[in-house]
Structure formats: structure tokens, C-alpha cells
Amino acid sequence: MDRPVEPGHFSACEARLDKHIAGRCSVDFPVAVVLPAGGSGERTGLLTPKQFCTFLNRPLISYTIQTFERVPWIQSIVVVVAKESLDLMMDIIHRFHHRNVQVVHGGSTRHRSIFNGVRALSEGEGGTARVKPKVVIIHDAVRPFVEEDFLLKITMAAKEQGAAGAIRPLVSTVIATTLEGYLDHSLERTMYRASEMPQGFIYDVIYQAYQRCSESDFEFGTECLHLALQYCGTNAKLIEGPPTLWKVTYKRDLAAAESIVKETLSQSACVVTGGSAQATELANALQKSMSTLDMEVDVISDLMGDDAKSLSKEWNFIRVSVNSSCFSEVGKMLSALEEADRALLHPVVIIWVYLIGSEDGSSASEPMGGEPAAMMELATGAKLGNILVYGIQLHHSKEATLWGRSVEKVAQMSCALIRDRSPALTGQLLQA
Amino acid sequence: MDRPVEPGHFSACEARLDKHIAGRCSVDFPVAVVLPAGGSGERTGLLTPKQFCTFLNRPLISYTIQTFERVPWIQSIVVVVAKESLDLMMDIIHRFHHRNVQVVHGGSTRHRSIFNGVRALSEGEGGTARVKPKVVIIHDAVRPFVEEDFLLKITMAAKEQGAAGAIRPLVSTVIATTLEGYLDHSLERTMYRASEMPQGFIYDVIYQAYQRCSESDFEFGTECLHLALQYCGTNAKLIEGPPTLWKVTYKRDLAAAESIVKETLSQSACVVTGGSAQATELANALQKSMSTLDMEVDVISDLMGDDAKSLSKEWNFIRVSVNSSCFSEVGKMLSALEEADRALLHPVVIIWVYLIGSEDGSSASEPMGGEPAAMMELATGAKLGNILVYGIQLHHSKEATLWGRSVEKVAQMSCALIRDRSPALTGQLLQA
Lengths: 432, 432
Fold this sequence. Notes:
Two copies of one chain form a homodimer.
Chain A: H1 11-15, H2 17-26, E1 31-36, E2 54-55, E3 58-59, H3 60-69, E4 76-81, H4 86-95, E5 101-105, H5 110-120, E6 135-138, H6 148-161, E7 163-168, E8 173-177, E9 183-186, E10 192-202, H7 203-212, H8 215-220, H9 224-232, E11 237-240, H10 251-265, E12 268-272, H11 277-291, E13 296-300, H12 309-313, E14 316-322, H13 328-339, E15 348-356, H14 371-384, E16 387-395, H15 400-420, E17 429-431
Parallel strand pairs in A: 1-4, 1-6, 4-5, 7-11, 12-13, 12-14, 14-15, 15-16, 16-17
Antiparallel strand pairs in A: 2-3, 6-10, 7-10, 8-9
Helix pairs in contact in A: 5-7, 7-9, 11-15
């Protein structure tokens, strides 16, 4: 199956495509990823471990897996989970069609879990040998927003140096405390960094480090780079990463992650006119109005033919109908999206904009009949497939100010519906 | 003016009222707060410094000021801002009716700004003397969620020890780097803490520390506790704070802060029935249904009389009307809320639930006339006053399953409208 490219925070990647292609070519060795996901998530204050917390109908860990799946030079992904989460993890992999993902049991500590994952990369089922990767990337399941170009940097540095890790400036001053709970001293902030993920290692380096390290390291240690230095003499290259590397730790971080994904999904929309002059005029006005609300709008006449590419890259569609309460246009769009499995990873929004009254005023106040009920029925079915359908009705006016205000209102509501993606409001026919 | 009590994350405080009263009594000395707010916010990736970024129609710094205003034993608040933000800050103070807030010019570094704020507490206008506080709390303008009981802990420890500060466990391993960008060593995570805000000082301690410290401290230092230790020999007591102390640093933190405030505002609602039996029945059904969606609902017949307290403590109102499309009930509610200035600090939601068709089926399908237009007009006016009005229409059914499904739908939509607080959707008459 072809997977849609993630838009938005990945569009920056697209703009750097040339660099990427160069990068891709230079990764001519096998690379694998280990994602420790055995944490209990006690710091979020939630019952569910944070990697399994869901937003926009998908668990956090699936977003992270998707991030690595999008990278063409990464061959395989090992997810390490606690025994009790195994079924849940298998279900997530199945549900969101993740490929090349192997699930491994975690150990009692972070290092034991990572070692299990690393080992699985060289051992097949039942302990048989398997072609091991040259470089292994270790990343947290709860850092969903790592970008390909940063993974490339870590991977290349790891290949050259044996080990590499992401760092970030310290946000707070770090202080040493006395046993009695008083200030002992504060650290010179410029000399220290926060060690983050991802980290990369030549496979043999991290494997040997784990084979050689002590029980105490396994029990209390937290830093893989430290093990590589202490047990293999490998001095890790440190690379400053972007703030998006942050770790989803608290409940508020889930809200932040959701808002990042929503923003990513809400940067553009595709308006389909069906080709009529009046619909095109409205679509062009909407395009102008929505661009002032920071939403980029493409106007096309049909989702088929040359414009079919919108189907595979866009998360938001607006269908303009003029004097026709027939839902077949929206229904066709829905079928096309369902057929392309477009809403597998993210909810897709369809807004049906229904313009009443033609320019010559011949049917200026066509009454609504069964539309609200039909609309609701259509939307209820679509929601089951992760497609959110809303309607907006507006009346044509020859009076320029009134008309401008109506268009402005449609634009505002469309942007709000796209950004909020509220499942409870699907099927509503709103008034502009 | 009486200010409404903030609900939600403060309700935990209310539950600890006894402890608080004890606490309040023990603060029998003057306490003041200095809020450095001169940062440029370059890390958020936004043009506006983060303390002035707005969510739910209010800048972040106003939330922080409000947090301190709610504490009865804090006498005065000094906000230190950059010269170019002075007008903006005065406007915020005026717009949100903040009291006892003095605005002071910042210096070129964090320490210089804080010292300006500290100095202002003992100097009146034009350098005249002023009764200085016993304890001064220093807090960041970008940490809006500090709770009263934690402020009390810091204040009492500062009074006893001379200095006290909030700490948090380190989220990441801290590492020392070599000049060439390689790992030097990693710190033993258990021995170190992140130094956070608030911090508290006996006034003379922090004042003298700043008078005695060097130009280099002023220029490059970041830690007030360090100055108190070095220049006054005052050893700060360190107290572990809750995760809500976190600092709004990146754009994603603004989304997290907004989600915390929204959640706080969306924990309960008040359903007003007007007293009719049928409305009361619907209200009770809604109460049951919304409680399964984690929303606590109070059913009352009128906002006046004994139930008037709902007006001053609730952020969400649902008005149930039966077979009456008259908006006077919603209008009256709106006037009462406007008169009480209830939407000054947070947007208030009113949902008008309009039940069509009586139990005996006498007017089962009363057609809608001018309601949508009247509803929109009412809502447009209300929005200017930060009150968000939405409508939901449902038809009575004698068929229990259908009826149950309609009520369930009203409950779901009400919860979604309350949680999303979308300004673009006010005035809409939705269908359940």
C-alpha cells in the first residue's frame, strides 16, 4: 500500500529534498531502530502508559513508528514493550498497517529493555543468526516528532565516531543538593547539556557495551553514551537537536503533541468546485479569505484526472455545491477517500459548502428539505471511517457587503472546523 | 469588585481549605512578589515575547498575575518589563482589572531586572522610602499555574531559612561536553535537581546579595539562590514542586497551557430549567449523560434566589427551553452574566437547548421560524463581551431508544462545545 506523505512539519523536509536525496544516497549501509516503550508513564498522572495514550484516534507510539517508517533508509524497527502491553502493541501495528516492525519483550530496567531490542536485531526467531545492521538508532517511543534530516546526522556521526547523541541546552539551572535538602552549588549552565534522544551507535559498539557492563549499570544506569565510553572507549559525538525532540512526559505534553499534529494537518485545504462558474467564484473568494487566516487553499474542479494528487496529499476538502442539495458530490468524494485509505493515520475533514440562490436571484430562498437528516446520516457513517463531514449553508446576495461577510464567515467556520476536528459536531449543517 | 474564584485546578485548593486557613493565619508578615517579564521569548519561535502571547483572549502574564492576586496574604506584585512593553503591560493591567500591580522597567539582564523589581518594593515614587516586605517571592511571568499551598511552603521556608527555592527532578540526563563537542562525562542524575521558580527570600537577604554581587554576576548569572549563598551566606532550603510549575518556553507550551485552562473551565456546567417538568426531566437526563463524559452538572430552576451562587462560580450554562422559541430566557441569563462581569477573565459558554414537541405529542414538529437569525444576532453581541452562545435543537420522542439517543447527542455536543470554546461557531443552532 502506498502511504500518504505527512504534510506540515514534514514539508520543511520536502523543501530540503535535494539535501535529502544526497543524504539518502550516502546511507549505503543497513540501519535499524530500537524504540524502548516499556515505561509505565507514572509521571503523566494517567493510568495508561504515555506511549499508548491516544489523540486524534491514534496512540502516541504509532506516530513515532510512522516517523521512522517514512525514512526510506531505515530497514527495520524493533519496539520493546512490557509483557502486559504485548497484545495492545500487536493490535496497534495491525490497526495502523505498520510494516517492518518487530515487537520484543522488555526487561526490568531501561538498559535491559534496550539490550533486548539490540539483541533481537542480530538474532532471528529462536536464536538463529540474522544480518545485523551497521548502525542502530535508539529513540524513545514518546518523542514522536524527530525529523529525517536529524536522524541522518545522528546516523552518519555514529557510523564515523562509533556513537552519537542528541543534546539540548538546559532549560533550568542545575543544582547540587546537600543530603539535608539545601543548596550545595549550582552548575555553570554553559558547560552542561541535556542528553536527549535519538542516539546512534555502530551495532557492535552498543552490543559489546551491553555485554561488558555491570549489573549495577543495568540496574541504575540511564545513559547509553556513557556505557559506550566506559566499556568500548567510544567517545560519542554530541549534536544539538531541535526543540521538537522533546519527550512526552506529562499530561500537558499530550495536549502539546496533539496541537502540533492538528496544526500540521490544518495548514492547507483543497476546494473542489465541480466546474460551475458560480462555485468557482465562491471558491476563489474563500481561497483569498482563508489565506488571511493562514490556511493555504487550492481550488480544483474535480478530484479526478490531473487533480487526483490532492487526494493523496491533502487532509482537508471543501466541496462547493450551488443550488443542489444532492449529496452525491460529497458522497463521491467520501468514497474516493475511503478507497484510498486516506484516513488511516489521521482524521480527514470534508466540508460541504452549500450555496443557495443563484446570481440572477431566481431561487433566492430555496427551502431546506431533508438535507439536515441526510447530511447527518452521511456523516455518521463517515465518522466510523475517521472522516469528519460538516456542512455550511450560505445564501447568495447581490449586495457586496453582505456577500463578503457571508464568505468571510464560511472561511472562519471552515478554518475552525478543520483546526478543531471535533467528532461531536460532524453532520451539522451550519449557517454562514 | 468581587472576583470569581477560579475553578478546577484550584478546586483542589478549596478541598484543603482548613489547611489553608491555618496557613493564612501563620503568614502574619508582609509578602510581595517580583515577576520578571522582560524576556524576548526567542525560544517560542514567535514574534511576541511569550509572556504576552494570548490564549482564550488573554495574555499569559495576566494568568500569572491572577494566580498571585487570588492569594490573600500577598500584598503587592511588581512586574518587571522591557521599556518597549510598558504600554502593553499597562493596557493588560487595565483591561483585566488587575490590582496592586506595580510596573517597573527591566534591566539588560535577568538579574538586573529582578534587582529593579526588588528595589521598587522599598522605594516609592521618586525614590522615597516605602514599607518593605518581610519576604519577597520571585517567580517567572511564564509559569502561570503555581498553587497557593506551594507559595505558602516557599514563603514560610524563606522566612525561616532566609532563602528557599522550588526544585524538580531532572527529566533528562545532564552531561558535560568537551570543547570539541564530545561526551566528557554524564552526571549522576540522583545527585542533581533542576532549579525552578518560585523562590522566596527574606527581603534584606536578596537586597544585600544584589548590592554586593559583582558585575559579572549581573551580566552572566542566572541563579538568585546562588547569590544569596555567596554574598550573604544564606543557605537556601530546596522544596520539590509539582510538575505544573513548568515554564512556558516553546510554542507547544502555549498549547499545553491553553489546554490546562480549558480543562479547568470545562469540569462542570449548570443546567437551568425554568421550572417546567419536561425541562427538568431533560435536564436530569443530561446530567446523567454528561457525568459519564466527566462533566459534573448542577440542575437548578432559576439563576436567581438561592441558586444565584452558580452565577459567580460556573463557567458554563445550559438553558433548556420547551416549545418556546423565545430568547428572553437566554437573554436574561446573558444580562445577568454581563452585569456580574463574569467573562472578564475567561470566556463563558451558554448553550440554549431547545426541545420541540411536548410529551403528549401536541406540537411534535413546530417549524423553526426566525430563530436561527435571532440566535445569530444574540450570539454576535454576546461574543463581543467574551460570552459564547450556541444552540442545540432536539425533537421530543415517545420512543425511548430514539429519545435516549437524542439526549446522548445533546450531551456529547454540549461537552464538545464547552471544551472547544470555538468563537467561530457561536450563534449556530445545531441538531441533536
